[in-house]
Amino acid sequence: MALLAGSGIVAVVLWQHSYDMDERRVTIRRDGHTLHAVLTAPRGGGGKPRPLVVVIHGDGPVDATHEDGYKPLWEAYARAGYATLSWSKPGVGGAPGDWLGQSMADRAAEAVAAIGWARSQEGVDPDRIGLWGASQAGWVLPKIVERTPVDFVIAVAPAVNWLRQGRHHLLAELRKRGASPATVDEEIARSDLTRRLLARGASFEEYTRAMGGPGEMTAGRWGFITRNHTADVTADLPALRGVPLLLMLPGQDVHVDTAETGTVYRRELAAGGGLTVRHYPDAAHTLVRAELGESGPALTLTALLAPRSLFAKDALGDQERFLRGLRETERPVRGD
C-alpha cells in the first residue's frame, strides 16, 4: 500500500511538472558574452516565427529556470503563442563569470547581446521581442530599451530607488517580526552606518571593522552593493514611454515599496499611453500567494504538487491576456 501511495505521489509530481511547451538548452555567444540559456516555444506551428519574451531576473544567484519556478509563466506565454528566452546568471549552474561583479548597465548589455542573438534564430520573430523582469530588473529594463528596440515590457514589482528599497525592506521585516522600538532604532542605526560607508566608497575590510564583523555580508556582495547602491530608475523611465507595459504590483511586498513604484511609473509613463497597471492584494513580492510565505513547508509542498497554484489569483491569466492582446494589435515595426 505504501509503495502504491508513493508511486501515486511520484505520478502527480511528474504530471504537474509536465508543461505544455517545447524546451531546449542553448548556449549564446555574442559580443563577448557566453550565456547558458533555455529557449521555450509553443508546441506545433511547424517552425513558424514566434514572438519572444526575454526574461530579466531579480536579485540573487538565479539559474535559467529559477529552479523551475518560471515554468508556469512560460507555459502561460506559450498558450498565448510566445516563445521565452532565459539564461543563468554568470557563475550560476556552471555558467562563466560572476554575477556579483556586474553593474545594472552590465546586466543590460548582457541582455542586449542575448536579444541580438535571438533575432537571428529561426523560429523567433525579430520584430516581436519583449521583456519580462522582476524586482531588481526594474533598473535594467529601461537601460535595455535605450539600446535596442523592444515590443513590450512586463514588470513585476520593479524597484525604483536602491536605498529607499533597502529601508522599506528593513522596516517591513522588523514589523513582520514584531521588533521592539529599541531593536528598530538599533537596526536603523546600523543601516545608516552602512549608507555612510557606501557613500565614501569603503572597502569590505572597512565595512567589517565598522560593523563588528561581516555578519551575512561577503566581499563579493559588498562589491556588488557598492557598484549599484545609487541605482534609481526615475531618470531612465522615459525610455519606456509609448512601449506597451504591464506593471504588476503585489499588495504584500516586503521587498519593494509597490505604492512608490505605482506612483512613479504613472507619473512618468501614463502620458505615453502604453501603461497598464494591475494590483494583486494577496500576493507577495514574486506574485506568489502571500499565504504561502516566501519559504517554508507550504511553499515547498505547493511548488512540488501544484506549481501553477503558487501564483496569486489572475497573476498568470493577466500576463497571458496582455500578450494575446499584443498579438491581436498590429503596430509599426521598429527599426534597429
Structure description:
The chain is α/β, with parallel strands linked by helices. The chain folds into 2 domains: 19-160 and 232-327, 3-Layer(aba) Sandwich (Rossmann fold); 164-228, no CATH class. Helix content is 40%, strand content 17%. It contains 11 helices and 8 strands. The chain has helices at residues 2-16, 71-79, 104-119, 141-147, 162-177, 181-199, 204-211, 219-228, 258-269, 297-305, 315-327, and strands at 22-30, 33-41, 50-56, 83-87, 124-134, 153-156, 245-250, 275-280. Strand 7, helix 9 (258-269) and strand 8 (275-280) form a beta-alpha-beta unit. Residues 1-15 and 332-336 have low confidence and may be disordered.
Q: Tell me, what's the shape?
A: globular
State the secondary-structure class: alpha/beta
Give the N-to-C terminal Cα separation: 63 Å
Radius of gyration: 21 Å
Low-confidence stretches: 1-15, 332-336
Examine the secondary-structure arrangement and name the CATH architecture of the largest domain: 3-Layer(aba) Sandwich
Widest sheet: strand order?
Answer: 1-2-4-3-5-6-7-8
Question: What's the CATH superfamily of the largest domain, by name?
Answer: Alpha/Beta hydrolase fold, catalytic domain
How many DSSP H or I helices?
A: 11
Output the CATH class name of the largest domain: Alpha Beta
* String of helices and strands: HEEEHEHEHEHHHHEHEHH
Percent of sequence in beta strands: 15-25%
Number of domains: 2
Strand count, sense and closure of the main sheet?
Answer: 8 strands, mixed
| Arithmetic mean of pLDDT | 91
